[in-house]
Amino acid sequence: MSLLLRLGIFLLFLAAIDVYAFQAFRSAFREAALARNLYWIISGGMLVFMIYLMLSFDRSAGPHNNLFKYFMGSFVLFFVPKLVIIFFMLGEDLTRLIVGLSGKLVGSNAEQFMPDRRRFVSQLALAAAAIPFAGILHGIFKGRYNYQVIKKTLTFKDLPKAFDGLTLTQISDVHSGSFDNAAKINYAVDLINAQKSDLILFTGDMVNNQATEMEPWVKTFSRLKAPLGKYSILGNHDYGDYIEWPSAQAKEKNLETLFSIHEKIGFRLMRNESLSLEKNGEKINLVGVENWGSGGFVKYGDLDKATEAVGEKDFNILLSHDPSHFEEVVKKFKKKMHLTLSGHTHGMQFGIEIPGILKWSPVQYRYKKWAGLYEELGRYLYVNRGFGFLAFPGRVGIWPEITVLTLKRG
């Protein structure tokens, strides 16, 4: 199927959604032509905006400029509430169909097969749709910089005594190309430093596509401090695989520039390798792999190579960007990775979390382990919800995260 045909089908699908959701507006605002007209002005404008972006798309820059962010914010803001409206409309139409069929079966002489839409249901649908509308507005203007510090204590029977009480702060998925508020980023860096952790560990996706996106923020992130060091790995977006480059050399130079930026910030970038942290004659290992992802994501990570210098009984902390690596390789790997730190999913930047009660995001239908702490086969995985944001310029219910983990000997 050609790209144009797929785009055409997608646009027709969106148009069908618009037409169906409009039934609620037509019923609820029977005497208010302005409201009905405003619906079509906004919906039509969004479709025109989308077509323009498709026609002007620049593969050398990727879909991460300000115009694309404005579109994604607006699209999600108006599209998600329409899905809520449609849920109510489908329920009402099913009821109308049953009533109509029942009337025919009992021999009703009514001329109209299906009853008219009830205005109350349309008004209820619009009221329900106002809830995600308000939530998305909050996510765009406040939620994307609503940094949360999440603290966990993990106990290991084989943690070396010298490292009992070790603290580490994990950040992930910075996506610096999306930043537009220096004050908020400075605040977040101060918040990381305020945790006073022994280690700072960054688990990939420093940029959206290009190393230059991080250059304005080098000084800010250079302020990060940790007495035992700052360590980092690459994520799938760091390789520049999602845009077109004028040459293979240009793409390689971009990656080399990103390597130097890690160094300028003070991160020790780990690429399929390990290193030891020593204290009072004891040691633990940090293992860092390049991106390894399932479902079409690149598999540059090589855990065998990264653990060549790791002993069979060593205590190991693994940095691996994509949690599918844990699911498919790490949890059964011959050398035990006691704790794996990942990111990648962002929690889809959209979901509901009520501690101890509810944890839901559409991303869970793609990733079994998508946010927070997991334990399997005696090995821990922590999936950070991400520091930044990508494409959709907001976060709804899934807030940007700074993770603080304390390791205890138990």
Blueprint of the fold:
Blueprint: H1 3-28, H2 33-55, H3 66-105, H4 119-141, E1 148-156, E2 166-171, H5 182-194, E3 199-202, H6 218-221, E4 230-232, H7 248-265, E5 268-269, E6 273-279, E7 282-288, H8 303-306, E8 316-319, H9 324-328, E9 339-342, E10 352-354, E11 358-360, E12 372-376, E13 379-383, E14 401-409
Parallel strand pairs: 1-14, 2-3, 3-4, 4-5, 7-8, 8-9, 9-13
Antiparallel strand pairs: 2-14, 6-7, 10-11, 12-13
Helix pairs in contact: 1-2, 1-3, 1-4, 2-3, 3-4
Overall shape: it is elongated
What is the topology, as strand order, of the major beta sheet? 1-14-2-3-4-5
Q: Helix and strand string, N-terminal first?
A: HHHHEEHEHEHEEEHEHEEEEEE
Q: End-to-end distance, in Å?
A: 58 Å
Let me know the number of strands.
Answer: 14
Largest sheet: 6 strands, mixed
Kindly name the structural category. Answer: alpha/beta
